[in-house]
């Protein structure tokens, strides 16, 4: 019975794709309705933190619609759509990596500027504020910060050690860095140092 339903869905998809190629927009809405659960299920485990499944799926359907004329009649539409989604996800990952590198370069420049302001290193007030903020972290987060910044462990090694996905570790470190930056600024501002 399940096989019969799958065959009906495949036939329904083929009919909707053919009608879509002839310009029928309602037919393409049917294509999306049939393929969206499958595409989202495929994308979900492959999207790292910060990349939205909905966004990649949406862009994939738009690209597929724009390129319907190049779809080979009789080929697997799902496989063709997956190829598009794979390219869209790869492009988004490259863009995210580029943005991360740029933020890292910006952070390096900011740190160099701060170091240039004082030959003796960071001001004592900033170090004291950072220590104060670090003490406010929960023990699990302090371990993560220590592993990455004191022990200088690779992200993959930390992920393996903690039994968590690499993306989770990256996201947590990013969140902690942002929180620490705000905490230090708030502390310095309260003390009139900033």
Order of helices and strands: HHHHHHHH
Return Rg in Å. 25 Å
Number of strands: 0
Number of helices in the DSSP assignment: 8
**On the 0-100 scale, what is the average pLDDT?**
84
Largest sheet: none
Kindly state the percentage of residues in helix. over 70%
- Low-pLDDT parts are none
Structure summary:
The protein has about 190 residues and is mainly alpha-helical. The chain is built from eight helices and no strands.
Could you characterize what this model shows?
With 194 residues, the chain is an all-alpha fold. It is 78% helix and 0% strand. The chain has helices at residues 2-21, 25-43, 53-66, 77-117, 124-136, 139-150, 155-162, 166-190. Helix 1 packs across helix 2. The termini are far apart.
Key words describing this protein structure:
mainly alpha; 8 helices; 78% helix
Write the layout of secondary structure elements.
Layout: H1 2-21, H2 25-43, H3 53-66, H4 77-117, H5 124-136, H6 139-150, H7 155-162, H8 166-190
Helix pairs in contact: 1-2, 2-3, 2-4, 3-4, 5-8, 7-8
């Amino acid at each position: 019975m399940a096989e019969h339903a799958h065959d009906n869905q495949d036939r329904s998809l083929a009919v909707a794709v053919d009608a879509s190629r002839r310009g029928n927009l309602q037919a393409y809405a049917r294509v999306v309705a049939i393929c969206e659960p499958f595409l989202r299920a495929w994308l979900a485990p492959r999207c790292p933190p910060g990349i939205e499944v909905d966004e990649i799926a949406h862009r994939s359907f738009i690209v597929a619609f724009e390129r319907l004329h190049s779809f080979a009649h009789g080929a697997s539409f799902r496989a063709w759509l997956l190829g598009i989604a794979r390219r869209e996800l790869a492009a988004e990952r490259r863009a995210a990596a580029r943005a991360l590198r740029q933020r890292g370069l910006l952070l390096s420049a900011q740190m160099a500027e701060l170091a240039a302001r004082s030959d003796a290193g960071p001001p004592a007030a900033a170090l004291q504020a950072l220590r104060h903020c670090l003490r406010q972290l929960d023990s699990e987060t302090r371990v993560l910060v220590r592993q990455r910044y004191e022990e200088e462990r690779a992200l993959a090694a930390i992920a393996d050690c903690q039994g968590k996905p690499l993306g989770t570790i990256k996201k947590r470190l990013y969140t902690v860095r942002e929180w620490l930056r705000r905490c230090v600024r708030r502390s310095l501002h309260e003390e009139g140092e900033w």
